[in-house]
């Protein structure tokens, strides 16, 4: 894709490279970009232009997804700073892993007991955790510029996101 | 012969000609065609003024093919050769069809997709569907007075890749140019949203004859953004008929019925279901082939009780979509009902109770999908009026690969906005391994065996290396129709080995070509004519587009030599095209290709300009909010 420096999604969406972003601005830029680049906008054009539209529209979708989700947005900033991948840069602590095990057990217990309200309570608790985690990530990246700490938070966040998927799957199983 | 009008360099292009485009709702029970005519979107009726065409195809022993009302009315006389609800078999194998045993058809297990044995031979569901599409195409051409530039065909949002591909193949077989495959709930949202100038989060609850779809969309100034979609591709209004059918069999202690009797009683069951929308109780009655008369009084209460599990089943996908979109019921501004089955009062009540609000029903639930498709077709054909409309749709099911131990590795998760591309690196597990087998699957389950197998292919020619040293990047690309292509490449060695997906389902190009020419006397000549016409359409479209683009911003974006080079190729292609039918397809394709090649840089600069335009408007936009 010769026309875009597609590693810098912040630039593509006209945002300053910070963890804290205005979601409304991101959404507006996304719709405006797709309004110009989506393949449907170029359906009656030549092959070259239609192929470019497909590629660019794909890039815009990828960028939107990357910036919308906290973990991938933070990862994007860590990469922009020239640091290695989060997985390499900042490992999670054994204590954190222990806490993860407890979460998993709680989800599994609720699933086996077919206890939907317990799962919903876990889901709410997790939501709160995620909010706190994002705040810490914002401080590490935007205030302190501490990429190693940020990398650790990113990895933790990924664990939490897997928990969320686990809770959703369990709920889906019980509801059907 | 006013074939072409080419503006002089620097002058504005000729005004855009209105292109005839239609939206087609290829439904399980009914199909419809609609179009935008002088600004009004309308369903095109048949000669008798009927908008709906029953999706029923009857094959007679004399080679006649009857589609629609006549075929439906005759279904009970010849159930084996009268194909009802063929949509249920599209892109499906015998094992996928749960109630195959009780259907009156003779299924033939064939690779990829089931076939049906009829008096007209073994037929693919693609061929049967093409018969329905042909009737709609002719109806549209007669009604609109010209050849169609293209069609938007709707598919259930929850259709997988194989089912989508089969639908596209059917359209091609019917001689239609597919502008886009459009998800049915999205189509309904377009028709509804534009009609009501709605903004905010809307849900579409679409219970068709054979499929259930649920989609959540955000509507913002002409942008229809699908946030999540879910559904059940084996649940539909037909199942409610089957409930009544089974109830009658059980009540009257009847033995299993013959194909003819089964079709008769199923039809009676459907009519009873429809009557129960307006009356509290109704009689299911018919006379079987052996003279047995069936008489049963079915009350609405009993019907509600019988179909409760079906209704409950629809809310599981509803909850999943809400969760995927990260939304609560309270965030939803409106719920649109689509599909004839949503006329059932107890269904409406259940939806109302779930969402705490009355569903929106001001558009005919049978027509709304076709109307939305027509609006999208009009926009895609390049007719100006709907140029502000933009659809951002998603894939309904995750796409992935089989990894060690029969597990699935998801590459593109469900509800990803399309077009979408993702790549994942894999490696070899044996020293000196030179080939790798790639198995593409679709579905949410962890075990490959529980997902749908889409394609298998081998990547060969990997240079021998120690285990784990090779870097094989597998790239998935999903286009705006929701169709997938996969490629793989070994990275470290610099040796490239690219392959395209070879579908393990559906029909190959040569099979399609065979069907296209089958039964036609001058098959070869016909095929050539068809290819020439396609090449001419391509050339004309490219000329139109290039000319318009040059007039729009050619002066701004091109140097004098670049400008001249493009015009030279425009004139060359125009000349080749004007020579008409006498020229060879090859010359036409070469000239088209040459113009395509020379406009590459121009296209790139135009896209760059588009990006700048999109971003520079940001300030103004945020002031408006």
Would you kindly provide a written description of the structure presented here, covering whatever features stand out?
The complex is a heterodimer of chains A (176) and B (625). The N terminus of chain A is likely disordered. Chain A has 2 domains: 60 residues, DnaJ domain (Helix Hairpins, Orthogonal Bundle), CATH 1.10.287; 90 residues, Up-down Bundle (Monooxygenase). Chain A is an all-alpha fold. In chain A, helix 3 crosses helix 4 and helix 6 runs antiparallel to helix 7. Chain A is 75% helix and 0% strand. Chain A is built from 8 helices and no strands. The N terminus and C terminus of chain B are likely disordered. In chain B, the strands form 7 sheets. In chain B, strands 1, 2, 3, 4, 11 and 12 form a 6-stranded mixed β-sheet that branches. A 5-stranded mixed β-sheet of chain B has the order 18-13-14-15-19. In chain B, helix 2 packs across helix 3, helix 5 crosses helix 6 and helix 11 packs parallel to helix 13. Chain B has 4 domains: 189 residues, Nucleotidyltransferase, domain 5; 70 residues, Actin, Chain A, domain 4 (Alpha-Beta Complex); 109 residues, Substrate Binding Domain Of DNAk, Chain A, domain 1 (Sandwich), CATH 2.60.34; 95 residues, Substrate Binding Domain Of Dnak, Chain:A, Domain 2. With 625 residues, chain B is an alpha+beta fold. In chain B, 37% of the residues lie in helices and 24% in strands. Chains A and B meet through helix 2, helix 3 and helix 8 of A and helix 7, strand 19, strand 22, helix 11 and helix 13 of B.
């Amino acid at each position: 894709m010769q026309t875009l420096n597609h590693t810098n999604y912040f630039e593509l969406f006209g945002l300053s490279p910070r963890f804290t972003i205005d979601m409304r601005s991101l959404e507006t830029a996304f719709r405006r970009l797709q309004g110009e680049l989506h393949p449907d906008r170029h359906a009656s054009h030549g092959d070259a232009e239609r192929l470019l539209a497909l590629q660019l529209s794909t890039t815009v979708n990828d960028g939107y997804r990357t910036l919308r989700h906290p973990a991938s947005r933070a990862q994007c900033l860590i990469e922009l700073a020239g640091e290695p991948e989060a997985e390499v840069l900042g490992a999670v602590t054994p204590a954190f892993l222990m806490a993860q095990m407890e979460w998993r057990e709680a989800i599994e217990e609720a699933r086996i007991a077919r206890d939907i309200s317990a799962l919903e309570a876990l889901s709410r608790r997790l939501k709160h955790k995620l909010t706190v985690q994002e705040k810490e990530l914002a401080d590490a990246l935007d205030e302190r510029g501490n990429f190693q700490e940020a990398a650790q938070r990113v990895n933790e966040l990924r664990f939490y996101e897997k928990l969320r998927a686990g809770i959703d799957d369990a709920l889906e199983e019980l509801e059907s | 012969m006013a074939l072409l009008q080419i503006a002089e360099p620097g002058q504005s292009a000729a005004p855009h000609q209105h292109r005839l485009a239609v939206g087609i709702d290829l439904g399980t029970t009914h199909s419809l065609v609609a179009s935008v005519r002088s600004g009004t979107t309308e369903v095109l009726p048949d000669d008798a003024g009927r908008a709906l065409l029953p999706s029923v195809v009857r094959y007679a022993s004399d080679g006649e093919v009857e589609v629609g009302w006549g075929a439906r009315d005759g279904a009970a006389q010849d159930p084996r050769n009268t194909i009802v609800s063929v949509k249920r078999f599209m892109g499906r194998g015998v094992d996928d069809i749960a109630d195959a045993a009780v259907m009156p058809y003779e299924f033939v297990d064939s690779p990829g997709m089931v076939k049906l044995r009829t008096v007209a031979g073994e037929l693919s569901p693609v061929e049967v569907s093409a018969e329905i599409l042909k009737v709609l195409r002719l109806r549209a051409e007669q009604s609109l007075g010209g050849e169609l530039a293209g069609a938007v065909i709707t598919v259930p949002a929850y259709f997988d890749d194989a089912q989508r591909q089969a639908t596209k193949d059917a359209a091609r077989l019917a001689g239609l140019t597919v502008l886009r495959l459009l998800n049915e709930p999205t189509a309904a949202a377009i028709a509804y949203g534009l009609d009501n100038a709605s903004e905010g989060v809307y849900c579409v609850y679409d219970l068709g004859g054979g499929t259930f779809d649920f989609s959540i969309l955000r509507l913002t100034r002409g942008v229809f953004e699908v946030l999540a979609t879910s559904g059940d591709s084996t649940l539909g209004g037909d199942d409610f008929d089957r409930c009544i059918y089974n109830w009658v069999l059980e009540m009257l202690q009847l033995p299993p019925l013959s194909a003819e009797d089964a079709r008769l009683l199923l039809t009676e069951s459907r009519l009873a279901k429809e009557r129960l929308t307006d009356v509290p109780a109704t009689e299911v009655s018919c006379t079987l082939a052996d003279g047995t008369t069936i008489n049963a009084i079915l009350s609405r209460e009993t019907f509600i009780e019988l179909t409760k599990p079906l209704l409950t089943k629809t809310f599981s996908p509803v909850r999943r979509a809400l969760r995927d979109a990260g939304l609560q019921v309270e965030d939803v501004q409106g719920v649109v009902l689509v599909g004839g089955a949503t006329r059932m009062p107890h269904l409406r009540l259940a939806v109302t109770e779930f969402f705490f609000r009355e569903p929106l029903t001001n558009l005919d639930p049978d027509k709304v999908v076709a109307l939305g498709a027509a609006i999208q077709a009009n926009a895609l054909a390049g007719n100006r009026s709907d140029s502000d409309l933009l659809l951002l749709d998603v894939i309904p099911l995750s796409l992935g690969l089989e990894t060690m131990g029969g597990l699935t590795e998801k590459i593109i998760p469900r509800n990803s906005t399309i077009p979408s591309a993702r790549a994942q690196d894999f490696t070899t597990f044996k020293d000196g391994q030179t080939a790798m087998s790639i198995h593409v699957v679709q579905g949410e389950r962890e075990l490959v065996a529980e997902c749908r197998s889409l394609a298998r292919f081998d990547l060969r020619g990997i240079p021998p290396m120690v285990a784990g040293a090779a870097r094989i990047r597998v790239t998935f690309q999903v286009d705006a129709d929701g169709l997938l292509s996969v490629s793989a490449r070994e990275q470290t060695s610099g040796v490239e080995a690219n392959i395209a997906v070879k579908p393990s389902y559906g029909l190959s190009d040569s099979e399609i070509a065979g069907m296209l020419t089958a039964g036609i006397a001058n098959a070869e000549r016909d095929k050539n004519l068809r290819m020439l016409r396609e090449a001419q359409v391509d050339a004309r479209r490219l000329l139109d587009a290039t000319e318009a683009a040059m007039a729009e911003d050619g002066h701004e974006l091109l140097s004098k030599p670049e400008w001249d080079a493009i015009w030279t190729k425009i004139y060359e292609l125009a000349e080749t095209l004007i020579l008409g039918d006498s020229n060879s397809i090859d010359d036409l394709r070469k000239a088209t290709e040459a113009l395509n090649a020379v406009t590459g840089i121009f296209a790139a600069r135009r896209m760059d300009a588009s990006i700048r335009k999109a971003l520079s408007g940001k300030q103004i936009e945020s002031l408006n909010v």
